[in-house]
Design brief:
With about 220 residues, the chain is α/β, with parallel strands linked by helices. About 25% of the residues lie in helices and about 25% in strands. The structure holds zinc ion.
Length: about 220
């Protein structure tokens, strides 16, 4: 599903997975749940591109729904994989970078435990560690923006040339617009709020969150 000519949402993948199509290769931001790789590869094929063209897979944070099929996509494509150090350490162990079943009810805790057993991501050592401020050769210069709070070293990615922000779970959206991350599973709410403020100053016009619809004309819609 097209956001712009070069940026697409991959359909039928949860959480949101974004595909950037450039002449010299493809970049994916977040992979969705385990076993989503077929949907991603099918969508890429439907655009007349091939798995081997995937050059990079960037992961915002080490949650099941964001790196769940990173191994599958890496095996299919040979792409280089990227995350921040603390999130990469969790991914190498096949876990999240913080406890994720917080203060939930007994039934929810049961469902989370069950899902964790059935849908455990395969551990993966990423190829490259990303740091705040680094610029990647994507979309004319894709900035790595550290946005901790939801998880200890959550990353967002901002492309100033097209004013597009990929914010992972540092914010989410619904049909009313953007919202701050308020999950009971947030690692640090104070840092999560500061990360929203940091991102509101970037000048993004299009915000692509991990959950919820893409927000266009985003200026002035940040929840600060
Ligand atoms: Zn998520």
């Amino acid at each position: 599903m097209k956001i712009t000519d070069t940026i697409h949402t991959i359909p039928n993948v949860q959480a949101n997975s974004y595909l950037i199509l450039e002449p010299d290769g493809l970049t994916i931001i977040d992979t969705g749940m385990p076993f989503s790789e077929k949907q991603t590869l099918r969508y890429i094929a439907s655009l007349g591109r091939s798995a081997e063209e995937i050059k990079r897979i960037l992961v915002t944070h080490a949650d099941l729904d964001h790196y769940g099929c990173l191994v599958g996509l890496k095996l299919a494509s040979g792409a280089r994989t990227y995350a921040s150090q603390p999130e990469a350490e969790a991914m190498a162990r096949g876990v999240s970078s913080r406890p994720v079943n917080g203060s939930v009810g007994r039934f929810q805790a049961f469902v989370i435990r069950l899902m964790g057993k059935l849908l455990k991501p395969t551990p993966i050592q990423v190829d490259e560690i990303l740091r705040d401020g680094q610029i990647l050769p994507v979309l004319g210069g894709l900035q790595v923006v550290e946005t901790p709070g939801h998880s200890p070293s959550h990353l967002s990615f901002f492309a100033p040339s097209v004013h597009v922000l990929f914010c992972g779970d540092s914010m989410k959206s619904d049909n009313k617009g953007l919202r701050g991350s308020r999950s009971r599973n947030n690692w640090n709410q104070t840092l999560a709020d500061a990360s929203v403020r940091k991102q509101s100053a970037l000048g993004a016009q299009i915000v692509c969150p991990g959950h919820g619809p893409v927000v266009k004309d985003a200026d002035g819609k940040f929840p600060v």
